[in-house]
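Table 4 source record.
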Amino acid sequence: MLTQIINGKILTPQGWLKNGSIILRDGKILEVTNCDLAIIGANVVDAKGMYVVPGFIDMHVHGGGGRDFQEGTEDAFRTAVAAHGKHGTTCIFPTLSSSTVPMIERAVETCNKLMKEKDSPILGLHLEGHYINHNKAGAQIHDWIKNPDPNEYIPIVEHSDCLTRWDAAPELPGALQFGRYCAEKGILPSIGHTNAEYEDVKAAFEAGFTHVTHFYNAMPGFHNKMGYKYEGTVESVYLIDDMTIECIADGIHVPPTILRMAYKIKGVERMALITDALAVAASGPDAKAFDKRVIIEDGVCKLADRSALAGSIATTDRLVRTMVLQAEVPLEDAVRMASETPAHIMGISGRKGALSRGKDADVLILDEKLKVRCVWQMGKIIENSLFQ
């Protein structure tokens, strides 16, 4: 089946293309052309002058649609993935916060199975814990946190085909060895939930920690100790040009002014947008968090004692709107940070992240208010309100 999308402003790697068309066939982008003449036999879709952009990639997301990936079941995974798909996430990396080994093994088994399905939007599993700093644990469960243990993580990695990323605090004993091991296995080690200062961050980068988890959250910035000034994790990461970051761009976890500053310093190529969404994202008004300690207040998830934020209720389309409407970032760059940049960071840019010939047919149509109106995932429509 041939699909041709016409009459839209198409975001290509070279910039916006007007009066052109994008042609999809067999789950791939057959062509992006400056010609919008209708092809005989094609299913022609009129984008009505709206924006045609690459599908979004969420590389840090805990759940949605009322379900959490920590449940580890096939039904939970499918429900959460489908919920985010309606908001433009065409490629997803399910994320577990600090978990027990049996919980990780169950999620690995499910993820392995689902990734083998044809045209699966799941391209890997992300473990956010449990090798993190107790003092920066935030909403994560302290009883499950520990130092990196090769007797534990090596068997997990060896029995998994789906692990693509694992986070750790680099100042912990054994963390650099852990990072080197992950990097050698093709798993992205990422700095997260940490008290690291410059020497820690520099050593971590040299060990393979080239990425930083939810930048600004669960890490220190510039601070005083005994009257002396010290750089925090934030400043240390800014000083390492090639280190990439991800930000929860809901406008609450990181305020719009700081999102804009991170964008100006790191640039679109080294800054990705993530939801860090919990089960309550993309769900009904009566949805509750998977973690019973968590409440929803002021448009964000918090621990009930309000001691820490616990994750977001955002979807990827909201991230783009926040960056454009509040952080005053150009639309093309906001979209790239939700598609092209995460594709590069996660090593899938050969298939995903841009509207160009030969890439997977993950395509969105956004209206003038940057709301999702149509979603193609691998060439199949999974959301369509274009003609309503």
